[in-house]
Design goal:
The chain is mainly β. It has one domain (about 1-245): Porin (Beta Barrel), CATH 2.40.160. Helices cover about 5% and strands about 60% of the residues. It has 1 helix and 14 strands, in the order αββββββββββββββ. The protein has one helix at about 1-20, and strands at about 20-35, 45, 45-60, 65-80, 85-90, 90-95, 100-120, 125-140, 165-180, 185-195, 200, 205-210, 220, 225-245. The strands form 3 sheets. The chain has an 8-stranded antiparallel barrel. Strands 5-6 form a two-stranded antiparallel ribbon. The chain is elongated. The protein starts with a helix and ends in a 5-residue tail after the last strand.
Amino acid sequence: MKNTLFLLFFCFTLSISGLSQGYAFGIKSGLTVATQKWDASFQREPYLTYHASAFIETYSKEDQFTLFAQAGYHKKGSSIRTFRQVIQTTTGFTEFPGLRTPFEFGNASLILGAKQKYDFKKSSKLYYLIGVRGDYTLHTKLRPDGVDQSNSYFFVYPFDEFVNKFNYGATVGGGIQFNFSELVGGIIELSIHPDFSKQYNQPEIRNVRNPNPLSQNSLTSIPERQIVNTTLELSLGLRFLHKIIYID
């Protein structure tokens, strides 16, 4: 599936460069506000992180409607906060420190879509965009540092075995493009990226060690858990124009 995505990207870029009066390409990066739809087992907060991508799009003299392809690296996740607790046990007091840890998925993303542009002041355009997106998960961070199988809370956190490597969704957004010169310009863009698939899909896990020292049961069950990502991205970028001039 990953190879199919990059083959589609390659064919799409060839059509962009071969069927238009030119093409624009560039890079962009910026702030990501990542959120996740989870079960109610943790208090989750937005995760502030970053993204970076490269793009190519069609170009015509009017520059009103364009097709584009974009590939990049995007972090997704949520920030998990647990509070400090001091619990009295039969042997004394046990302290559980407060932690703030991101649940992080590092994804390579490919977006294919279209932009509709409108003239705005001199040498600038407003636009909105819509596209379809495929993601491939490169790495994860699913538990705090130091929480391994010897830790009583190890089974509370997600497991890599239930991460779906390939995910898909949509991209919608808008922005402004402006020119520094005839062939070089900039962009400011705000976009939202909801997933339609589950980044994490875990069935119920029974008979795991109970992390609650006050419980009379040494074993417990981890309920079914599903995670779906949505990110909001603010991007700044550079756009370079390559014009094709036909000579008879």
